[in-house]
Structure formats: C-alpha cells, structure tokens
Amino acid sequence: MTESTVPALGELLKDAPSNWGKWGADDEVGALNYLGPEQAIAAAGLIRSGKVFTLQRLIGDPKGDPVWPGRTPAERTQILDESSWDGDDAPAFPGGLHYADDKINAFLQGSTQYDALGHVWHDGQLYNGYDARTTVGGLDKASVEPIAQRGVVGRAVLLDMARFRGKDTLESAETYTHEDLIACAEAQGVELRKRDILLIRTNYLQLFFDLGDKFYEGFCEPGLVYSPELVEWFQEMEIPNLVTDTIANEVTTDPNNGVALVLHNALMRNLGIAFTEIADLEQLAEDCAADGVYEMFYAAAPLKVALGSGSPVNPVAIK
Ligand code: UVW
After folding, report:
1. Residue 160 forms beta bridges with which residues?
2. Ligand 1 pocket, residue 276 CB under 6 Å
3. What is the largest CA-CA distance in the chain?
4. Which residue, 62, 125, 283, 313, shows the most beta carbons closer than 10 Å to its own?
C-alpha cells in the first residue's frame, strides 16, 4: 500500500457512529458517563477472595520502560540524599532532619497511562466536536483532568487473547476483532455485559524485554483492528474503558487500509471511550487462569494534571 492510496481518517470514518453531544455540549469524559453509582455498587459485589492486583508497570524498571517510538522513558533524578549533607548545600532544619527527594522527567503518556479524550484528533476536531486549536499549549478541552476528577470504577473482564490463541505473546501486527473478544470470553466462561471495562492481554511487551532495540524495528503492535461492525459493537455494548497491555491498544497500522491508529479516532475521538495503555496484566492473568474467574472490581484514577493529554495511573483490580 503506497502513501497515496492510504485514505484519510475523515474519509475512512465518514459514516462511523459518534457519541458527540450525547452527554451535553460541555462533556469531557465521554463513555465514562456509563459508569455511575449503580455500576460501582455492582462491581463491589464481585469482590470475593479479596485478592488485589495493581496493574501499573514499574516506572524506572532497570529492565527498561516500553514507550511509543519518539517518546523517552521517564528519568528519575535524585535531588537530596544522605550525601547532600556532606557539603553545605543541603537544607538545615532544627534537630538535624535529613531526607531524600527526587523528581521525574516523564512523558505523561509513558508507562501505564490514561489518554485524555483530546489526545488524538483529525480534521480539526477532537472528542465532542471541540476545536483542535483548543489543544495548543495544553488541552483546554477533554484533557485528562476531568477523568482524574471523577475516577473510573466498574466491572472489568479480563480477555486473555494470548492464552486464547495458545501463545506466549501475540505477534507483531497480529489482529483480533470484537468477534474474537466474544469467542475468548465464551472460552473463558465469562459473560460480557454492557458497560464492562475490557482488559485485554496480549503479553506483547514481553518482546520488548526479550528483543531489546530490535523490538522497535518495523514497529507494529498487535491489537484490535477497525471495522464498522467492531465500532458498532463497542457502541452497543456501551464500553466505557478499553485497557490493554500494549502501548497503543490497537494494531499500529491497519492492514486493511494502511492507516495508523484508526481506533484511537473511531473509539476514543468519536465514541469517547477512555484508553488505558501499557497495563501490566500478567499476575492478574495468571490468577484468572488458575481460578477460572475473569470478572472483577476495577478502580483507577489517573493523576490530576491540568491541561494534560494523558497521565500515569496504577489501576487496581480486586477479585
Ligand atoms: C499515540 O496516540 C501516538 O500514542 P498512545 O495513545 O499510545 O499514547
């Protein structure tokens, strides 16, 4: 497929469903509106064993941080430690207090993160029809802050696509559809319900640790692939939040049309579905395979970053 035959997103998605205006002209959290007290109370009823799983990847992992090409991993810098008091520069407090301070310089989209609904756009408009000029210098509209202010709580279902396909990890550019998600849920014996938060495991980032720099050669992650039927399914199912263990939640380049990150536009920009990326689903998946329970309570709140296009998060799943 040559560059000139690749359709523009606006053309590809011209008849695609949209949730713009559904929750009012001022809405900035989209399909998260599907999650309210009723969903939180129902999800709490799923807590049976009390096993808690935290789904964030370690920032500053000595083995490396997988990030989208062009982004750099977080850098943590020690500012104060015991050596600071060897000289005269360290702060002096009555009683002789010493302490450690550090800071990180990080992409807000590095590590496990929520994307703001205004994180991607095309044709000059973001989620809910906001003008793309509102992103200049920071997201005035549909930033991560409103998501952080409300939090995300609901029933989550883990769909272990790697195990379902009998693989350690899905392969580069491997795709799956909503029908595969349904088949995976059936094989796992779990019911998919409206307003479920979907946690999809590929274990693809294991290859980042196995392959080193070669991981980025011909970079194309596996993932969900666009079709009108898939978008309709996500809309009908009122999916509020798509969580995966890959960097971008979908196949990087759509093999059917050559377009990059189609679902960021069809699901996030058009339907307002929150994207959570680079989640660590390994321990949770092990546990689900062991006890056969693939539904759980899920809670997450990204950091409250004014104007932010994304923010790190450490989601919690409780079974
Ligand atoms: C891009 O949108 C480019 O990246 P991500 O959603 O993975 O942060």
Report:
1. 201
2. no
3. 71
4. 313
Question: Ligand 1 center to residue 68 CA distance, Å?
Answer: 7
- What are φ and ψ of residue 310, in 5° steps? 180, 175
pLDDT in tens, 124-166: 999 999 999 999 999 999 999 999 999 999 999 999 999 999 9
The candidate with the shortest Cα–Cα distance to 239, out of 196, 192, 202, 279, is 196
| 168-181 per-position pLDDT tens digit | 999 999 999 999 99
CA distance 208 to 246: 11
Q: How far apart are CA 232 and CA 212, in angstroms?
A: 38
Q: Which residue is closest in CA terms to ligand 1's atom 5? A: 248
Asked if residue 266 has its Cβ within 6 Å of ligand 1, the reply is: no
Alpha-carbon torsion 268, 272, 276, 282, what sign?
Answer: negative
Residue type at position 282 = E
- pTM for the model stands at 0.97
Measured in Å, residue 219 CA sits from the centre of ligand 1 at: 13
DSSP assignment letter at 33:
G
DSSP helix/strand/coil, 153: strand
CA gap 212, 22 in Å, rounded:
44
